[in-house]
Structures are given as structure tokens and as C-alpha cells.
Amino acid sequence: MTFLVTGATGKAGRHVVDGLLRQGQKVRALTRNPGRVRLPDAVEVVKGDLADPATLEGLFDGVTGVHLLTAAGDDYATLQTGRELVELARKAGVRRATLLWNGHVGPVETAFEDSDLEWTRLEAVDFMGNTLGWAGAVKAEGRVSAAFVDVPGAVVHEADVGAVSARILVEGGHAGKAYSLTGPEALTARERLAVLAEGLGRSLELTELTEAQAREGWRQAGYDEEMIDILAGWQSDPPAAARTVVATVEEITGRPPLTFTQWVSEHVENFQPDIR
User: How far apart, in whole angstroms, are the C-alpha atoms of residue 40 and residue 8?
Assistant: First the structure.
């Protein structure tokens, strides 16, 4: 069977690819820039843009299931092409899809819910990998600036999201479900920084930003205003599901979710000062 992975070089997508390959499946990876992709040789890399259905001709041919982003592009904007994506998938005979939301139910999720395809929505509360946004400041100054630093969130390792998606795509049995995906503990930004400092073996300082300062930082990073509103709302007052540890990862993969300490141990080099 062949499975399509969109966002295959992203935080979760590359782990979906790995999970599918470990299960002996064929993988097709969609990217806007094939020349910049570094994936295993067994992966079929194709060019296309989810925001432009005209570039997706033949993309779903021979595909059993698809891991689908619901936001894309340099500005991380919510995709508005849900109906077109469903029609392309239906015509090609795609059976199921995992939909990786971006914090709210948007046009892609709605279109699949209205279709006869098997869909499963993956509601990752927040990726541990987003901590990489601190890397430059940690390297340069040993100091991190963040807003909403005492709001807890059950951040999830992106490898767990990938493992869940790959298992669902291959095995099925989760049609019409929406799963909150969390790590094994709820941590504030202040607590995550303490874990990072311990992993690096050095002290790190924290500067708390106002919401206005955080919004401006996201704006400068290229996020559109809709995504900025989602981030601000989610981080300042996340829903109970984002603060609550759930057992979904273990129930679907058969193993406990990975800890933030494990994530730090895998990414220590990303935070070490450059040696010149």
C-alpha cells in the first residue's frame, strides 16, 4: 500500500514517514520544494502545494491513506482548500486520512467530516519541538523570552504524533474520531526551561513577555493574523484538554508517550553555543 504524507519534512511529518516505513509501507511525500528535501531513498518525493489544487493532479493516485496538514505555507495560514482536497482524494479511491489540526477545526476538517472518507482528527496540544524556537536565544545569551510562562500545557513529542498517525493510517479502525494527543505531564514554559537547563548542564534565564510583545514576535516570524490569534488564545487560556494528560498515545501505539526530558536529550546540540 502507498501512503501520502504532506508536511513530510515538518516536525511531525518526518515521524509519520518513519512510522510508515517501519511498517513496511510505501510512502509518497508532498513538498513545495523537492530539491531541499532530505528523506530516505525509499520515499517518493513529489512537488505540489496544498493551497493550490491545480498543482496536485495525480497526487492521490494509488494512495490508500493520507496524513494531511490543515495549515500550510510560509505564513502557516489555515488551508481553505478542504473541498478540493476531498474531491481529489475521493476520485483517486483514497480510503482514510489523518488530519493534523492547527488548534481549531477549519475548512479541511469540515470538508472531510462531510465526506464519506474515513477521517481521524489529531489534536496535538502543542509540540515539544516548538521549544526549538528558543535555540537562538539560548545559544547567544542563555536567556529565553516568552509569554504566558506559568500556563501549563501537556506538550507532546512530535514522534508520538507521527507514530499515532502512521498506526491509524495502516490499521484503520478510528474513523470519525478526534483524538487529543499529549505528553505524559503538563508543564509550564518556566518548567520546560528548567528541564532544558538541566539537560544542558547550565543555568538559563527567563524574561516574561506581554501578550502584545508576543504577538509582535509572531508577526515578525511570518505568522498571519489568524494564526497569531490562535496562538495567543491557546497559550494564554488553553482549553482543559490541552492542560490534561490523556492516554491516547499509549492506547494507539502500545507504549507510553515520550517525556520532555527525552526530547531535550535528543536535541541538546541544537542549544549548544557555536564553537568558532
Answer: 11
Phi, psi of 194 (to 5 degrees): -65, -40
Distance CA 202, CA 142 (A): 9
> For residue 276, is pLDDT > 60?
no
pLDDT tens for 50-62 read 999 999 999 999 9
* Distance spanning both ends of the chain, measured CA to CA: 48
**Grid cell in block for residue 173:** 479502525
- Residues 253-266: pLDDT tens digits? 999 999 999 999 99
Count other C-beta atoms under 10 Å from residue 114's C-beta: 12
Q: Where are the alpha helices (DSSP H) in 64-121?
A: 82-92, 107-113
Sign of the CA dihedral with 252 first, then 255, 261, and 266 last: negative
Q: Count Cβ atoms below 10 Å from residue 199 Cβ, excluding itself.
A: 18
Kindly state the DSSP code that residue 118 receives in the 8-state scheme: E
Q: What is the pTM of this model?
A: 0.92
Whole-angstrom distance, CA of residue 133 vs CA of residue 77: 19
Interhelix angle for 225-236 vs 211-220, to 10°? 140
> Rg of the chain over CA atoms, in angstroms?
19
**Cell reading at 189:** 514554559
164-183 burial code (b ≥16 CB/10 A, e <16): bbbbbbbeeebeeebbbbbb
